[in-house]
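Late entry, evening session. Most of the bench is empty. Finally got around to the prediction I had been postponing all week. Sequence below, unchanged from the version circulated by S.P.
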Amino acid sequence: MCANYEPISKDRVQLLDLLEPTFDYKTDIYPNYAGPILFSKKGNIEWRLARFGLVAPWVEDLKKVRNTYNARTETVATKPSFRNAWKKNQFCLIPVETIFEPKYIDGKPHWYGIYREDQMPFTVAGIYEYAKVNGEEIRSMSMLTINSDNHPFMKQFHAPEDEKRSIIVIPRDRRNDWLNCSHEEARDFFFEMPVDEFTAAPKKEVHNFRPNAH
């Protein structure tokens, strides 16, 4: 699972061959914060700001929306919170610099940043939704996750007794395909984290060595 991440820095979006977003956003995203996403509109990739934590169209009270920042691939098609976005093929990319996960050392959680070894930003598979709650229009999103109990890198994170989960990284050459696929095709994109492309460091150290870090 991922409940905290660092979105792509606006001065680094050109590394993904993208134009800079016209809106501002926080540099450390938690559930209910708004972060940048990419989605396809008539074949064109566009930026949007979306709440981290998907809000289903039937929601009447935001205070009752909990734990929808990650969507399990095993149940995304059937869970009430996610099934509308899934059925309507509302797929997005969440461009990030780093995701943060707890690593348990001597029984205590220590937060680690997971990032590309080449320090390039990357794109995470997500779903997005539209809702109107008390007259307020809300765009929201969730990161898709897969089981990583046996993944050689990702299995080191989360509590020892908990199931291990991982985000899905969409490679550069598959981004357009993901944004324009159907839910029947989506499972072809449930890639495991590339072991040789990612590394991790304590959260407080992550910003100290990235080029052009904000």
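Two things to note before I forget:
The two ends are 25 Å apart (CA to CA).
The chain has one domain: 5-206.
Will write this up properly tomorrow.
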